[in-house]
Amino acid sequence: MSSKTVLSLDSEAVFSLKDGINFKKSPDDGKCYIIYKENGELKACKNQCKHQGGLFIKDIEDLDGRTVRCTKHYWKLNVSTMQYVNPPDSFTQDELDEGGLQLVEVIVWDPWLADPQDPQELQEGEVTVTYLTHACMELQLGGKKMIFDPWLTGPAFARGWWLLHEPPADSMERLCMADLIYISHMHSDHLSYPTLKSLSATRPDVPIYVGDTSRPEPLSKGSLMPFSCYLRQIDEHLRFMILKDEVHPELDTCIIVEYKGHMILNTVDCTRPNYGRLPHNVDLMMSDFAGGASGFPMTFSGGKYTESWKADFIKNERKKLMNYKAQLVKSLQPKIYCPFAGYFVEAHPSDRYIKETNTKNKAEELNALIKKSAPGITTWTPKPGAVLDLALALMSPSRKAITDPPSGTNIYKDSWDFDLYVDELNRAITAEIFKHKSWIQFYYIWAGFKNYNLVVRVIETDEDFIPIDNGYNYLVDFMDLSFPTQRPTREHPYEEIKNRIGVMRHVVKNGLLWDDLYIGFQNRLSREPDVYHHRFWNHFQTELPVAGPDWDLFLQQVSSYQRSAEPQGIQTESVSASTLSLKKADCTVS
Ligand code: FES
């Protein structure tokens, strides 16, 4: 860590700051800051939203003059406390130290500079990068083969995401030949259990490297790596370091791979990788680009969520994301840039509405934008099986460095094994635990979220989000973790969440994060008022206990539960289901 002065104000300028919110620009680099003045005391922060880096402007609805509004997703920050007020209980903005005259930013050290290696000349074929599918790249680095984020088969996020690109036919063999694998984070389009299950049948010994995030499980099956330092043990030429994301440090990571002094930067899905400090002029950079990786707003209804509002929102968001990525690439000036990690499709027929409305950025469009603003950067729109030869790419732009798959190769998938995986999820429907309605109490007590003023109605539905006659339909009051039959009379925010029964029960039974439901488009939501409850969603999406509910204990105790603590207002159920169940334990890779 180090610090630098980012803005200096002389005493006259400090004196002339008005009480309340002031926006200031640094004359040196044009960056913007917010200074809040009250009774001669100053508080300051960067004009950069903690959510996804948006710019703040004055909040005209704020009569107290303490709040600014982000232009990106309209979150609101109270600069007198540096707390976000909408969404409530979410982030705290990083305050800059101020000495009255100078704003000082603590900056993260650039760890890749600690022990620099001079780039050595590469031979043709020495370093090749092969795109397999989605976020999965194979790197041949001298004698070692490294693979990023292998999702090669099956769906992700329960059954909501399916591979858009057809991986090369020998992808699984390639994976089994890997010397090391990097998994950036636990989202299932990166940590794919069906893929790892196949891998473990052949190569249970392959080293899997993951960052030492605060939620390592189930990633802790791999080798946990400390952040921001090179692992030197690979071989004399190859090393890599894993870096944290600023917005989701508990979850997201990215990686720098260095071979003979040549750097490959993969920022994967990080919103603000390594707190915004990244190496410039790397040889190859890859990052996500597509957007659409959230249930918001397509799974929402009521209030403002009309089809036209959603369409406008999606259009604007994608445009902002595209501009942000283009700007980032331009500022970092990699020699080659490749957009990836966005090649998924909501292919299941029951998700047609999402597929048709949740439009994503196109890699070609982003690359065209980059070409326009930074013509010196070579861009690569990857096709499955395409190979980049780094030595050729660095030698001369006129050398053909990228070899596309032979013409006639299937680029896009045209069929998916839906039934295998959907049946597998639906097997949870008939699990013994759901015969006893006190599973609800047991589950939410295990989940451990309470003392928060929110009432949620959870409804089990069929494929079309129609409530199932005999499905569960219950209220949870998270203020005191009770299960009332009717909404309480006190003032309270309320959400209604309709979940496809198979996925909901699979999630409950296995103690999984609710990403499968929310990011996987497996629920439909409405809320009053229309407020994002960050604490609630953050808990169910990232903070559930690592060990799942002890359902064996539950079944042992169930008769006493039913005698003494049956929740009220819960309908009984008798729903049939088909076969198979995906279990974490089935897929362990040692
Ligand atoms: S970037 Fe500010 S609200 Fe999303």
From TrEMBL:
InterPro entries: CMP-Neu5Ac_hydroxylase_Rieske (IPR037339), Cnh (IPR027033), RibonucZ/Hydroxyglut_hydro (IPR036866), Rieske_2Fe-2S (IPR017941), Rieske_2Fe-2S_sf (IPR036922). It holds the Pfam family Lactamase_B_3. The gene is cmah. GO terms for molecular function: 2 iron, 2 sulfur cluster binding; CMP-N-acetylneuraminate monooxygenase activity; metal ion binding. Sialic acids are components of carbohydrate chains of glycoconjugates and are involved in cell-cell recognition and cell-pathogen interactions. Catalyzes the conversion of CMP-N-acetylneuraminic acid (CMP-Neu5Ac) into its hydroxylated derivative CMP-N-glycolylneuraminic acid (CMP-Neu5Gc), a sialic acid abundantly expressed at the surface of many cells. Its EC number is 1.14.18.2. Keywords: 2Fe-2S, Electron transport, Iron, Iron-sulfur, Metal-binding, Oxidoreductase, Transport. Belongs to the CMP-Neu5Ac hydroxylase family. GO terms for biological process: CMP-N-acetylneuraminate metabolic process. This is Cytidine monophosphate-N-acetylneuraminic acid hydroxylase. Residues 9-90 form the Rieske domain. Pathway: Amino-sugar metabolism; N-acetylneuraminate metabolism. It is an enzyme of class 1 (oxidoreductase). It catalyses: CMP-N-acetyl-beta-neuraminate + 2 Fe(II)-[cytochrome b5] + O2 + 2 H(+) = CMP-N-glycoloyl-beta-neuraminate + 2 Fe(III)-[cytochrome b5] + H2O. It comes from the Eukaryota. GO terms for cellular component: cytoplasm. PANTHER family: CYTIDINE MONOPHOSPHATE-N-ACETYLNEURAMINIC ACID HYDROXYLASE, INACTIVE CYTIDINE MONOPHOSPHATE-N-ACETYLNEURAMINIC ACID HYDROXYLASE.
